[in-house]
Design brief:
GO terms for molecular function: ATP binding; ATP hydrolysis activity; ATP-dependent peptidase activity; serine-type endopeptidase activity. Keywords: ATP-binding, Hydrolase, Nucleotide-binding, Protease, Serine protease. Among the domains are: 119 residues, Roll (Archaeosine Trna-guanine Transglycosylase, Chain: A, domain 4); 81 residues; 39 residues, no CATH class; 178 residues, P-loop containing nucleotide triphosphate hydrolases (Rossmann fold), CATH 3.40.50; 103 residues, Helicase, Ruva Protein, domain 3. It is built from 24 helices and 20 strands. Strands 1-3-8-9-10 form a five-stranded mixed β-barrel. A five-stranded parallel beta sheet has the order 12-13-16-11-17, with helices on both faces. The chain binds adenosine-5'-triphosphate (ATP). The site of adenosine-5'-triphosphate (ATP) has 20 residues, from helix 15, helix 20 and helix 22.
Length: 745
């Protein structure tokens, strides 16, 4: 920005900023939430209509008081006698430099000259170096009139010295009165958590406060614009040195840019700026770009003289260049080390991958890892036995992935898709164990009764044994809840030695549940069939489509229609999931469906299935099922053994007749589980005692217990290990009484 062309108003409203330093030619965001600053935004920036009204003076390192009642920090402490920060009786002391930037509290980190008492020479050198200090003769004339050298920057060093030498007992006070005039290019307001504005301000030029005109509702000051071109070009003495400095600075700036990655747009822009902008503006711009502390920026801001500004920024620039060089070197060493150690990863960067390098941060490392990952993924795809058509699609996607920046959301989507493709069991299957005799034994062991169903299942298995690739009917078990339809499905998988996967269809009303979403959807996923195949890891599992009669039909398509394709042996060898978008052969999958009724199954679906009715059980069947299957199963599930709990046949009958009313045995199983839980608690409590009293003989004790674990308080009899009885205090009492009575009789 050519500051010579800028003419700022002579009166500027002041924005007091405690954090951040705005340098001419750069932009900062400032949060405005204090009283005077808020007033400035509201009455000046938001109301003003002209371009001039958007120009404000930004005074750095100055805290605006929270309320208007509090006093404004001194922006211009010309008449301050008390600022002398120590009582100096030393005759050799001609003055003190207060290391504050003039405003309160003093900034302890500001160490231009330190807070020490200066010798005359030091003081003069200090003053000559800085063009922004004020000199007070505190003893002779402590008032504003005494500010004789207020605007010292215009004085040549020689003249300055001659003015200083005759003066004794001076106090030098460094006052921050340099600010940056800036244009507020954006104002964003919010009321949460409290009213505040965020301003985006672009710096125009430095200014110098001459006088604060008013303090309320916001400070306005008479200012003098500082950055003017004639200041740079005039003064032929300095021009030679200035030229050298500016050339030197330019070279360093070029060096810095060369260390950065030109493919990053901001860097390319900076490179162009270096050539097109007047060299005088570069220190400010670069100081705001490179890594500098707030204090360093303040020092650059204070350096009104161009020579001084170059001198202040060159070391900062050099420091940044050295830092970048070191970073590059260490990164290179690290890469070399990796190459040496990991010999199995010879290709670190595929030529076809457009390398986007960000040497300033860790992006490069991350990207390298990513490139490795993609190469690994490609390898996995090639080894995954994927059919030709699907492989083509995968390779196309891999190609896209390589050219895609990893920050793109699609990168993750494509990667997930490819990982699914790798994981799918395209050609992986288990070999069937088709031994009819063993199958019969297994089915009998797992399930009592169900003769009709078992017969049909065995027939089905027999046909499969004879004809291996049977495009068989889909079995559908229909019967009331809890009659063992699901568990027979599981047994069939076990008999065949296949993986088992249950897909619950109850309440499903969206066809994407079966067939997946198209990948264009946000959060798209494959359907349950493909998901199931991925989780079992083989292409010939037993899929149990549970509750097929309870599918709904919603706005998102009919899931039953999607199932038609899945269940039709003529079609399902090329089932296409929307997410996958390539066909998958489902012909090896054994589908079994279950339903409570056929009334709600769509006819087209019904037509594709062979129905096997499973009737409800009689009381005797239930007792047998409980004794043979449910009680041992529940004991096992609760970590109990018959040593802990025995439920006699009469009790089981009692539970069935008094506590359950159902066609199946699910409720019966729940009651048995409730009893097991109650006993399990006692067993757990007795564990520490059991070690001591394990020698106790088993007593065949019939105990009458009122089991609260059952829903009402009918009396049931169980045979429980006396060890547990000991802990069931109430019950124990009753048991003792009973034994006593029996003994008495
Ligand atoms: N004949 C049987 N032999 C052994 N256990 C059985 C028998 N019938 C049912 N069960 C048991 O009953 C419980 C419930 O069975 P399952 O969940 O298979 O019922 P379902 O008919 O699928 O019910 P729903 O229609 O509600 O899904 C299971 O623990 C199962 O082992």
């Amino acid at each position: 920005m050519d500051s010579s062309a800028i003419q700022i108003p002579s009166r500027l409203p002041l924005l007091l900023v405690n954090e951040g330093v705005l340098l001419p030619g750069s932009s900062v965001r400032a949060v405005v939430e204090t009283s005077r600053n808020l007033q400035l935004v509201r009455s000046r920036l938001l109301r003003g209509t002209s371009l001039r009204s958007t120009i404000i003076g930004v005074v750095p390192n100055t805290r605006d008081p929270d309320t208007e009642a509090q006093e404004l920090p001194r922006l211009h402490s010309l008449n301050d006698n008390n600022n002398h920060h120590h009582n100096c009786d030393d005759n050799s002391c001609i003055g003190c430099l207060r290391p504050s930037r003039g405003l309160f509290p003093p900034d302890p980190d500001f160490t231009v000259n330190g807070s020490k008492v200066l010798t005359a020479k030091e003081a003069i050198n200090g003053i000559i170096n800085s063009t922004t200090w004020e000199i007070f003769d505190t003893k002779t004339a402590p008032n504003t009139e005494s500010v004789y050298f207020a605007n010292t920057r215009r004085l040549s060093p020689m003249r300055f010295q001659s003015l200083l030498y005759p003066v004794r007992s001076l106090v030098f006070i460094l006052i921050c009165r340099i600010g940056t005039a800036g244009i507020a290019v954006q104002v964003v307001g919010s009321n949460w958590p409290k009213p505040h504005y965020t301003l985006l301000i672009t710096g125009l030029c430095r200014f110098h406060i001459l006088e604060v005109l008013k303090e309320k509702p916001y400070p306005v000051a008479e200012v003098e614009q500082l950055d003017r071109l004639e200041q740079y070009t005039n003064g032929s003495d300095a021009a030679g040195e200035l030229n050298v400095l500016s050339e030197q600075f330019y070279e360093y700036a070029i060096q810095l840019v060369e260390l950065l990655d030109m493919s990053v747009p901001v860097v390319a822009k900076l490179r162009r700026m270096l050539d097109s902008l007047p060299k005088e503006t570069l220190p400010d711009i670069l100081a705001s770009i490179i890594r500098t502390s707030a204090n360093e920026k303040l020092q650059v801001l204070d350096a009104v003289g161009l020579e001084e500004r170059f001198k202040k920024t060159i070391p900062l620039l050099v420091r940044q260049i050295e830092g970048l060089k070191l970073l590059k070197k260490t990164r290179k060493l690290k890469l070399d080390d990796e190459k040496r150690v990991v010999t199995i990863r010879p290709i670190r960067r595929n030529n076809s991958i457009s390398g986007k390098r960000f040497p300033l941060d860790t992006a490069e490392e991350e990207e390298d890892d990513d490139v490795d990952d993609i190469i690994m993924l490609e390898k996995k795809i090639r080894n995954a036995n994927i059919p030709e058509q699907a492989l083509k699609v995968c390779m196309k996607e891999i190609k896209r992935l390589k050219n895609m920046p990893q920050s793109m959301p699609e990168f993750v989507l494509t990667r997930n898709y490819l990982e699914l493709m790798v994981e799918l069991p395209w050609k992986k299957s288990t070999s069937d164990r088709l031994d009819l005799h063993a199958a019969r034994v297994l089915l009998d062991n797992d399930h009592y009764a169900m003769q009709e169903l078992k017969k049909r299942v065995l027939e089905y298995l027999a046909v499969r044994q004879l004809k291996n690739n049977l495009k068989g009917p889909i079995l559908c078990f229909v019967g009331p809840p809890g009659v063992g339809k699901t568990s027979v499905g599981r047994s069939i998988a076990k008999t065949l030695g296949r993986e088992f996967h249950r897909i619950s269809l109850g309440g499903v009303s969206d066809q994407s549940y079966i067939r997946g979403h198209r990948r264009t959807y946000v959060g798209s996923m494959p359907g349950r069939i493909i998901n199931g195949l991925k989780s079992v890891g083989v292409n010939n599992p037993v899929f149990l489509l549970d509750e097929i009669d309870k599918m709904g039909r919603g706005l998102q398509g009919d899931p039953a229609a999607a199932l038609l394709e899945v269940l039709d042996p003529e079609q399902n060898h090329s089932f296409t999931d929307h997410y996958l978008n390539v066909s998958f052969d489902l012909s090896q999958v054994l589908f079994i469906a279950t339903a409570n009724t056929t009334a709600t199954i769509p006819p087209a679906l019904l037509d594709r299935m062979e129905l096997i009715q499973v009737a409800g059980y009689m009381q005797e069947d239930k007792v047998e099922i409980a004794l043979r299957h449910l009680i041992p199963k529940q004991l096992d599930l609760h970590g109990l053994t018959p040593h802990h709990l025995q439920i006699p046949q009469e009790t089981t009958e009692d539970i069935i007749s008094r506590y359950t009313r159902e066609a199946g045995v699910r409720s019966l199983e729940r009651k048995i589980a409730a009893i097991c839980r109650a006993v399990a608690v006692k067993v757990a409590e007795s564990q520490h005692r059991s070690a001591k009293s394990s020698h106790l003989p088993w007593l065949p004790l019939t105990l009458v217990v009122v089991h609260t674990c059952l829903s009402n308080t009918q009396e049931l009899s169980f045979t429980v290990n006396p060890l547990i009885v000991q802990l069931m205090q109430l019950e124990l009492l009753k048991a003792r009484n009973k034994i006593m009575n029996e003994a008495g009789n």
